[in-house]
Design a protein that fits this description.
Strand order of the largest sheet: 2-3-11-10-9-8-5-4-1-12
Helix content: under 10%
Largest sheet: 10 strands, antiparallel
Order of helices and strands: EEEEEEEEEEEEEEEEEEEEEEEE
Radius of gyration: 19 Å
Number of strands: 24
Amino acid sequence: MWPSTTALFFISLTLCRAITPGIYRVTPRDFQQVMLTQSGASVVTAGGSRVGDAAQTWYISPAASGAASQISIQNAKTLQYVAVAGKPENNTDISISTEPFAWNLTSIDGAGTAISLNEFYLTDIIGFVPQKIVTGPPVQNKQQWILSSILPMPTTYKLWNIATDTYLTAPESLPGQLLSLPLNASASQTWSLTGTGPGVTSGTLQNINTGGTAGVVNGVAGVYLPNNQTGSYLWYFNGASSERLTSNAPSPNVLALDQSAQVIVDTPDSGNEQGWVFVPVAP
């Protein structure tokens, strides 16, 4: 499960300039044909779809340390973290941990982003792929990364509303209703995303607890069982770190919260109440 629960989100939401919590693809600036990838217990750069699959998809969030410039990097497929085992030295292999691991994030004007631990930097050794990622002293281009927000891949998530610090919920005690509530351990806040993938910008959201699917029926957002065929259950994504979820129902059709934090569908605007962050979790 996602660790550290609610306390994690009371720290700054701004990781560094133009980087906010969300789902990202991470590519080396000098060789953008490859992507940061988890391969077993290793972290490598490898080729793949430009949309990326779950092993090449990373949830970047504030680290539990509370420092605004520190992040953790979690694989959306395995829920494991990019880490270093033991004390880092030059050319230490980057590894995988089941516990959150704090990295420093530094934005470089016009040149990408540096990811570091003390005086050592996340380094891509240009050459044959897949290539292991190691630590190294500053050598500029090899340690500059492009972080690109992308569509969430098919797996299980919590959907966090940034404006209210609440999570999309299908409460078992209120069948059919769709609410946004404070974080809890219930499966009512866990959603299975299906249908997205290379070249596909839409999918469906099924609640793990109730089995119902988030949709819009007669202009009302709710959770509906498969035998209800009259609604619209497909959601389109904008590919930003804070996703806007747009139903294939007629407008108004954007998933949002009203002033009382009730889940509604609304017309598009720039309000944070329409911003949802996909947080990968175990089903």
